[in-house]
Structure formats: C-alpha cells, structure tokens
C-alpha cells in the first residue's frame, strides 16, 4: 500500500497565450496519475504512448461511462515554459465541459494552497496493460489501452467499411496527419482496414513539435499537400487533420477545395442515407458559418439551430435529441456518434457518400449547388491589431447598424436584420450575449463581424462574408464576394481605423 502526501503550492494568478506543441505530455501524465491516485479516483484509461485523439477521448468517455476526460493539447489555453502545453477537460457526455464547470475549476485554482499526490507510481505507457495498487485503503487502477481500437470499432459500427474499401481499390486518396495525433488512427483505418496502399497516409508519426509543421488543416499550412495532389492527378480525395484530430480539410481531384460550410451542407443532405443514423432530426451550425446548411434543412424539413462559436453549444442540442449533425466554418464537423468534432469521421462520411453514389468530390459539390444554390463564403482576419483600435472598429459598425435607413443607403441593399447575436439555449435556457455583429440582406447575403483575442498580444477582428446565388454557381469566390468586401469596408472604415492596407489573412 502506498500513501499520499500533501504538496504546498501557490494560487494560480496568470496564464499567457502561445503556440502549439506536445511537449511535456509524458511528465504531465505522470503527474495526473499521482494526483488522481491521491484523490480517490478509481480508474484511469490512458492511450498507449500517451496518444489519444480528441474524438477518441470522447468515444472512450461515452463507451466506458467515465465521469470525464483530461486532454493534453496546447491548442487549448496554452501555457508552459514556451507556451507549448495546455489542458482541456471533457465532461461525462464526452464533450467540452460547460462554462459552469470550467469557471469553478478556475475559481478553485485562484485559492489553491496545497494538493495531494502519491509519489513513486511507475507506469510504462509504451506497453498495453493493467496496473493496480492500493492507496490508503482504496484500489487504484491505471489501464494503458490500445489508442485506436475502441474508436475503430465505433467507425465500423457507423460506416460500411466493405463498401468504402471496394470503392477505394480504384479511387486513390491522400491522408495528411500533419505529424499530429491522428497518425496511428489513419494508418490503421485507411491502410490496414480499408486496404489503401502504403504511402496513402503521410506525416503520420506523432511528434512533439509536429516536425516543424503547423498542424492547421487549411490551404496555407497544408500547401505541400495541395502541390502533391496537383502533381498526382489520379488522387481523387484528400484530407488533412489538425494536431488533436478534431478538424479536417477536404480536397477533391487536382486539389479542388471544399469550403467547410459547403462540406457541412453536402453531408447534411446525405446523412439520412447512412443507416446508422436511422432518423435525422436536425442540424446546427456556429453563427459565423455560412447559411448553406440552412437551405438543406429547409428543403428536408429539418430543424436548424444557429449557435455561438464553441463546440460545447452543440452538446446540449445533441444530448436533448434535437440535432444529428453540426459544424463550424473553422474546419470542424461532428455528429451524435460522439460529442466532439471529428476529422476522421468526416472523411469517412465523405467517402461513404462518394462510394455510394460512385462519384467524385467536384461533381458532388456542383450537383449540390445546382439543387440548393451556392453560398459564396470568405473570411478576412485582421490579426494582432491594437485592442483599443479594434474596439473602435466594432463600436463604429454597431453605430452604423443602429440606423437602419442609413445602413441601407450605405450598402445599397435591403437589410432584413442587423444585430449583436445572442443565443438562448433551447435546452437549459442559458443566455449567451455579444456573440458577434451580423447584417443580413434580403438577397441572402450576409456580413458578420467578430472580435477575439483581446489580451496583451493584441486583438483579431474577423469579418465573414457571404453572398448567395441560385443560378450563378461557377464564379470565382473572390470575384463573387467583391461587392460584399466593398460594403464591409464602407461600414467599418477598418483600414483607416486600424492603420492597415488590408487583412492579414484571407480564407
């Protein structure tokens, strides 16, 4: 039997934002084991080599009825010596902990003067196995598990692997794990289970520094993948995953790019064809995400919910049985199979669609636009700008929005709604306010303005542009959005106020 000991500490006072990495994971897991043992936890499940994707953690919590899960990923509240370490907590439903829990954790951290742990517990994370010990009268179990098996079982339950595998024999694909956590999952699923040839999965070794790659699945940070797909014209489908495996980018032949908002809409139209879902009850999107999925929901008679940015808002709707599918413009899509967005699941759903219809990505998108119309969509980010000036931009926009007649004269369009988005949760009645400024026009166009990152390192102003067309579906996106760019520049006067010549990033 081992004994716990009391360790003095200082109340938490500050936390600095920073970059991304997986440094310190091994040491952190050892610390979590020792503290869990000393505080009455009965059992810990830990992925082999300390590796579990965010979707896999959600899967495990739900499958084994755990009370929660701790995720180590610097993309969440990064701290550490070089801002390369962070922690996220998921609740018993498998999704991100709600505000009432994270706020309580934070409050406790500001008053904490000591904690208990157990020294000397040694667990080999490289070997699958069960470790048992007694801690002052109670049994404590640490189980090192195969990181992939439970998640793989769930994917086989949701999708027809035989159908997808047969299709992939004559339909080459490319999977880019960006040296993040999805490597072991993608290798097992796409190469071992679905029979794709070796080399289908690239950048598949999880590395602490991601091998120098910034694991953000977009056209900028996955540019080498785009070039590879342009050179290898036989590749019909490509996808890239972020560091913790919950987001993904979809590409078609010759690197045909699928906007995440369009991806959500296409998958919403197809979802009812997947037997696992039985009945599709509704869909949801984050407010900045384009309204393409709204048109699908309307056509199919589905409920459609618009929520603030943050995956936790989808969880309530899923748990209440109100939605089957949800997504956000920042490359995240998910469903009721877990309570997180899920990159590999999204890829498999796309491949399920393509294999069932014997088609390709570009044809699928153009067919969808022909049926529902096209929501041209873009985002302009003004990063690391002076916080005072960023606030000035938002104040100006809100002032212009308050004068509806003047707003319509300025834009030359009929305005149907101009507000600061707020959300009343239909499940628990909680209210979220000040979630972003939005202007909706009668022709289906839309502008959204959001301010984020107002800390010491500067603020970011994000402008979301959307223009709907029922007939003209083959225009270049930037060309189609020129009118909306001109309008938002008039409304915001953002160049002058921020002292810039243009946005930092255009996506």
Give a topology summary.
Layout lengths: L4 E4 L16 H14 L4 E5 L6 H10 L5 E4 L14 E4 L8 H11 L4 E4 L11 E7 L2 E8 L3 H10 L2 H8 L4 E4 L6 H11 L7 E2 L20 H9 L5 E5 L6 E5 L3 E3 L1 H11 L11 E5 L5 H9 L2 E5 L4 H8 L5 E4 L3 E4 L7 H15 L3 H12 L1 E12 L1 H16 L1 H8 L3 E6 L2 E2 L6 E2 L4 E5 L4 E10 L2 E12 L7 H4 L1 H11 L1 H5 L6 E2 L1
Parallel strand pairs: 2-7, 8-9, 8-10, 13-14, 13-15
Antiparallel strand pairs: 1-5, 3-4, 6-7, 10-11, 11-12, 15-16, 17-23, 17-24, 18-21, 19-20, 21-22, 22-23
Characterization of this structure:
The protein is an alpha+beta fold. The protein contains 17 helices and 24 strands. The strands form seven sheets. Strands 18-21-22-23-17-24 form a six-stranded antiparallel β-sheet. It is globular, with a radius of gyration of 24 Å. Mean pLDDT is 91; it is low at 14-21.
Helix content: 25-40%
Number of strands: 24
How is the largest sheet built, in terms of strand order?
A: 18-21-22-23-17-24
**So what's the overall shape?**
globular
Strand content: 15-25%
Head-to-tail CA distance between termini:
57 Å
Q: Poorly predicted ranges (pLDDT <50, ≥5 residues)?
A: 14-21
Average of pLDDT:
91
By DSSP (H or I, 4+ residues per run), the number of helices equals: 17
Write down the Rg.
24 Å
> What class would the helix/strand composition place it in?
alpha+beta
Sheet of most strands: 6 strands, antiparallel
